[in-house]
Amino acid sequence: MLAAERRDHLLGLLAREGKIVAKDVAADLGISEDSVRRDLRDLAAEGLCQRVYGGALPASPAVADYTARQAVTPDGKRKVAATAAALVRPGSALILDGGTTALAVAHALPADLACTAITHSPTVAVALLERPQVEVFLLGGRVFRHSAVACGAAAVEAAQNISADLCLLGVTGVHPEAGLTTGDAEEAAMKRALAARAAETYILASSEKIGTASRFRVLPWEEISGLITDADPHHAVVEQLTARGVEVLTAG
User: Fold this and answer.
1) Which of 199, 202, 201, 169 has the alpha carbon at shortest distance from 187?
2) DSSP per residue over 142-178, as a string?
């Protein structure tokens, strides 16, 4: 089989199965695992898969820069944001993550909502200022440009001194095996720090993130209250998550 044919075969497996197991592909095609791993390295370099131990998973499209991500599934993000905003109770304290979906949540909050909102995103903080009864706390630190959020030691330390009723957290990948992932180690650590300070944590994940993975794990499934997504409830990944006991709130 030619290299181009192997490439098409691997991409087809990712689309159909949601994962690639290198040893199985090698056995099916009658080639060495080293050849499969080289093919996967090439695909990963093009951003077409996320390599994991033993194979690969679909790569998240949410690894693009912040400006580019604003044009990715805006309707889906608005649906997720509307469902998430409905979870925020008057008088409560909310931790709101950064990123494009979190920004949509800030815009989706009722105009007359009175609550406390804590965020490490300057863009989200500015959007929250449009809500006159929302008291806004901005956590500082080194700004990670990809998501326009504060990360690093200073931001994590600031997060350890807050507490909230609800945390709405964004990720770039949602996969039954890889879990909840993002593309930067410091951002993943910051997300864990925020989630640890809330009574409940819900994950914001528009449909393009379902079934994909990024490099760094954020949280195990057991440590979240639920997942908010506009993906079809009959999507294979959504059904797997529901079967394992994850609460999935369908947005739409």
Assistant:
1) 169
2) EEETTTTEEESHHHHHHHTT--EEEEEEE-SEEETTT
Which pLDDT belongs to residue 209?
Answer: 94
The residue to which tokens 């200073």 are assigned: 154
**Could you give the angle at which helices 33-45 and 22-29 cross, rounded to 10 degrees?**
120
Is it the case that residue 66 has pLDDT exceeding 60? no
Whole-model pTM: value is 0.82
Q: Higher confidence at residue 50 or residue 234?
A: 234
- For residue 114, what pLDDT band results from cuts at 50, 70 and 90? very high
SS (HEC) of 48-117: CEEEECCEEEEECHHHCCHHHHCCCCHHHHHHHHHHHHCCCCCCCEEEECCCHHHHHHHHHCCCCCCEEE
**Within a 10 A sphere around the Cβ of 207, how many other Cβ atoms?**
21
- Answer positive or negative: Cα dihedral of 164, 168, 169, 174: positive
Conformation bin of residue 90: beta by default, left when phi > 0, alpha when psi is -120 to 50: beta
Q: Which amino acid is at 212?
A: T
Q: What is the pLDDT of residue 65?
A: 55
* Structure tokens belonging to residue 35: 């050849």
Cα dihedral 104, 182, 87, 124, rounded to 10, equals: -40
Bigger pLDDT: 117 or 19?
Answer: 117
Selection from 19, 56, 18 nearest residue 37 by Cα? 56
Helix (H, G, I), strand (E, B) or coil at 218: strand
What residues have CB less than 8 Å from 230, skipping those under 6 apart? 76, 79, 80, 206, 207, 250, 251, 252
pLDDT at 61 over 90: no
The DSSP bridge pattern shows strands 248-250 and 179-182 to be unpaired
